[in-house]
Amino acid sequence: MLYALPLDDIRNNIGEILNGMKNPVKTLNSMDDNEQLGVIDCNQERSFLRKSCDNFIINASLITCAELKSGQLLYVGTAGDPDGGEYTALFPGFVRSTADADPRWSPDIVCDITKTNFRDAHWDVIVCSNVIEHIPNINMLSNEMARIIRPGGHLLIDCPWNYPYHAEPPSFGDYWRISLDGFNQLFGENFSPILAEQNQQSTHLLYKRVSQK
Hints:
By secondary structure, this protein is an alpha/beta fold. Helix content is about 25%, strand content about 25%. The protein is globular and about 35 Å long. Residues about 1-10 and about 15-50 have low confidence and may be disordered.
C-alpha cells in the first residue's frame, strides 16, 4: 500500500517530537526564503532538513512507527549530525544505533555499510539519508541492505537530485544522482516501495523488505 498523509496531519503529529529534540531540525515554516529556494551552503547540507526532506522523512517515520512500532534501527552516515543521528528522534520506539565508515564522526559502529559484519536480517529499520551519493559501489549497498534488513523491515533512503557537488575528501566523495527509476532498479528485486517522491531537490523512498523466497 502506498501512503500519502496530508502535510497538516504530519506536522500536527510530529510537532511534539520535533520540539523535544536536543538539536531540533528546521521545519519549512522556520526556513528563510533563501533556504526554501534551496540556496544553501553545501558545507551545511545536513544541518537542517530541506523542504523535501522535511516533508518526506516525517511522513515516512510516522508510517514506520505505526507499522513496526519498535525494534532495532540503524542510522547510516553521521557526518556533521547531532549525537545519535539527525533523524533518529523521529523513531522514538526503536533502539537506535549509528554507523559511519569514518571514526572521526563518532558513530556507535565504524563500518563500511556495503560489507558489514551484522548477522542476516538483524535490523528492523535502516535510515540512509544523504548517504548513497557518497558510496562508489552502490550495487554492493543494495545487496547488503537486503541481507541485513529483516523481511518486513523498512529502509528509508534518499539521494540529492538537482544539488551541487558536495564531497568532503578524504572522508567521502560525491558520485551519484539517482532517480526513482534508478532506485527501483537497484532495490526493486528485494524491496517493495511504500512511499516514494521525486522533486527538483531530492529522490526519496521508503521501502519494505520483501519476504525471502
